[in-house]
Amino acid sequence: MNWASFSTAEPELAAITEERFGAFRHHVLATLRRDGSPRTSGLEADFRGGELWLGMMAGSRKALDLRRDPRFALQANPGDGTGMGGGDVRIAGRAYEVEGERKSGYAKEVEPPEPFHLFRTELTEVVRTYVEDDRYLVVQVWTPGASLRTLRRA
């Protein structure tokens, strides 16, 4: 399921997620190394044309990780201090490298430093965690084909 499909299924959570990712430029991407251990790297996420795009420098370790194993998790930058307006948001899924016309079209629009890798994403989970009424920890979990689950803990 791409970003457009998720946005149609859960428009409120999608809007909050885009807002959280839009609040800061750099976020944290987790990929899997060859030995299966996690690798975290900084990344700029781009919501454009109904897709969540992951762009990165040519030959970067995170790009090579995704070529080998497309699973990823992307954590929104929480910002300074502990305010976290809108909550803590993360997206998990699979990322697939894009070449040809789609990559060229993206490059014309965004003008990233060349050469670069471009990955489109398919979502497997979106999670938002926030505090409600200074009393409850609220966790919203979305997965494809399931209703949004909301858990509240005192």
Tell me what the structure shows:
It is built from four helices and nine strands. The chain is α+β, with helices and mostly antiparallel strands. Strands 1, 2, 3, 4, 5, 6, 7, 8 and 9 form a nine-stranded antiparallel beta sheet that branches. Helix 1 (about 5-10) packs across helix 2. The longest helix has 12 residues, at about 10-20. The chain is globular, with a radius of gyration of 16 Å.
List the helices and strands and how they pair.
Blueprint: H1 3-9, H2 11-22, E1 27-32, E2 38-43, E3 45-48, E4 51-57, H3 61-68, E5 71-75, E6 88-97, H4 100-110, E7 116-132, E8 136-142, E9 149-153
Antiparallel strand pairs: 1-2, 1-5, 3-4, 4-7, 5-6, 6-7, 7-8, 8-9
Helix pairs in contact: 1-2
Structural class by sheet pairing and helices: alpha+beta
Radius of gyration: 16 Å
Biggest beta sheet attributes:
9 strands, antiparallel
Percent of residues in beta strands: 35-45%
Could you say which overall geometry the principal axes of the C-alpha atoms support? globular
Number of helices: 4
Helix residue percentage: 10-25%
Low-confidence stretches: none
Mean of pLDDT: 95
Can you count the beta strands? 9
Order of helices and strands: HHEEEEHEEHEEE
Distance N to C terminus: 33 Å
